Amino acid sequence: MKKTHIIALGVIAIAVAMIITTIGDASTYLSYSEAKKLAEEGNTKSVHVTGELPRDANGEPVGIKYEPSINPNRFEFLMVDSVSNRQFRVVHNQPKPQDMERSEKVVVVGKVNLEGNYFEADKILLKCPSKYNNGDLKVDEQGYVSYNK
Question: Where is this gene product found (predicted)?
Answer without folding.
Answer: Membrane
